[in-house]
Amino acid sequence: MFQSIITTSSRCRAPIASLDCMEEFSGTTAQLDFGRSTSLGSNAGIQIRTHATTTPGLRYKNLGKSGLRVSNVGLGTWPIFSPGVSEEQAEAILRLAVDSGINLFDLSEAHSGTRAEIELGKIIQKAGWKRTSFVITTKIYWSTKSEERGLSRKHIIESVQASLQRLQLPYIDVILVHKADSMCPMEEIVRAMNYVISQGWSMYWGTARWSPVEIMEAYTNCRQFNCVTPIVEQSEYHMFCREKAELYLPEMYNKIGVGFMAWGPLSMCLGDAQSGDKLWIPKGSLKSKSQSYSWIEDEVNREDEVRRLYDKARDISNLAEKLGCNTIQLSIAWSLKHEPVQCLLLGATSPEQLHQSLQALQLLPRLSTGVMLEIERILENKPVRPPPISTLALR
Fold first, then answer.
1. Cα–Cα distance, 139 to 301 (Å, whole number)
2. 358 contacts 100 by C-beta, under 8 angstroms
């Protein structure tokens, strides 16, 4: 009997440890399945999987302090439904995402017009995916027509109804208010969103590109008028854009339960160094001329800033090579390593590119404290909250 117990127990596999408990994972010489490629989508032989197998490292988290469970990696549909991507290729990307365990799809009329919602609705109907198995987030405010934008009650309700018709779905999981409207009272916005949810057209609502002050104002109005509060803020976050995500959004989560959906690791533009090397430089990292009174002074500062950015990008690229991945994969893993990020949106124009991005999840256990400190040393941009100013000093 004792031998049978040993035999039975030897066949049982131990549960996979949480990545949170593997921070001090060692073995910097071990090679992961990154192919040591420095270009996304370089593996042309990748086949679309026909059976759902969750990608190693993919986790499911509550969005904000709601009960909605989403994958820690979501799929942004802006590049998928861009003009250069065919319908067949877009469908292949979405099927790969679902087979990999991704359950969140983010849409925006401002990014890809109405095509994204129409095409995604067709693909969902064709694939026959159960409505309970995926999460749809779409944005309102922007429109393809300039006179049809804003956050009036009329525009909110009409936008939601139009999105439902294009998606061919009975409801949308999360409606994100894309940018606050200074011309519309906050009370009207929160009451309209509460009406949309009470009608069953949406389950939750959130914000995108809102400041912490605007989010807090919306929350206060929701409490005052007994309306449903927002559960998530969608904002840019990567190695060169950190202040809002690391200083203020965690405070929003702890105080009012607003979670954080991030985008940005792939929002890099490819630049040429003087030596001819290709480096990834983040868009929006350079100062504009409006930030200086002197055009000559601005040009000098811009040249110095470009040089510093290239140096940092080169050091990050060298570190990624040591870890056996490329710069984009390191950027994705670095963003996911930060606890406030509950869902990170990735885009792709081919299944191969999405596969390469998802390989970054395997890098998470290797981002030990030492590696993270080395990245901080290279970036030198860790945000610090400014010291409080005494009211007596302002008098």
1. 37
2. yes
Name the β-bridge partners of 359.
none
Distances (CA, A) of 296 to 228, 287, 307: 51, 13, 17
**Residue pLDDT, tens place only, 223-245:** 999 999 999 999 999 998 999 99
Instruction: With beta carbons less than 8 A apart as the criterion, state whether 338 and 50 touch.
Output: no
- Confidence check: pLDDT of 100 > 90: yes
CA distance 171 to 167: 9
The sign of the torsion formed by the CA atoms of 263, 266, 269, 274 equals positive
As given in the structure block, the two tokens for residue 202 are 């949406």
- How far, in Å, CA of 90 to CA of 9, rounded? 45
Higher pLDDT, 385 or 266: 385
Report the Cα 209 to chain-centroid distance in Å.
13
Cα–Cα–Cα angle for 265, 180, 197, rounded to 5 degrees: 95
> What length is written for the chain?
395
Per-residue pLDDT of 283-315, as tens digits, reads 444 444 334 334 344 444 667 787 888 889 899
* First-last CA distance in the chain: 84
User: In whole angstroms, what is the distance from residue 282 CA to residue 368 CA?
Assistant: 24
Q: 3-state DSSP call for residue 141?
A: coil
CB 101 within 8 A of CB 71: yes
- Residue 370 has phi, psi (to 5 degrees) of -65, -40
Amino acid identity for residue 344 in this structure: L
Q: Tokens in use for 72? A: 């820690």
Strands 202-208 vs 232-236: parallel, antiparallel or unpaired: parallel
pLDDT value of position 310: 85
Backbone angles phi, psi at 363, to 5 degrees: -85, -20
pTM (2 d.p.): 0.80
Q: Which amino acid, residue 186?
A: M
Q: Where are the beta strands (DSSP E) in the chain?
A: 60-62, 69-71, 73-76, 104-108, 135-140, 172-178, 202-208, 232-236, 259-263, 268-272, 278-282, 343-346
Q: Hey, what amino acid is at 82? A: S
CA–CA gap between residue 63 and residue 343 (Å, rounded) = 8
In whole angstroms, give the CA distance from residue 208 to residue 180. 8
DSSP lists the bridge partners of residue 137 as 106, 174
For residue 331, CA distances in Å to 28, 88, 160, 360, 371 come to 18, 29, 34, 8, 13
Residues ≥6 apart with Cβ < 8 Å to 13: none
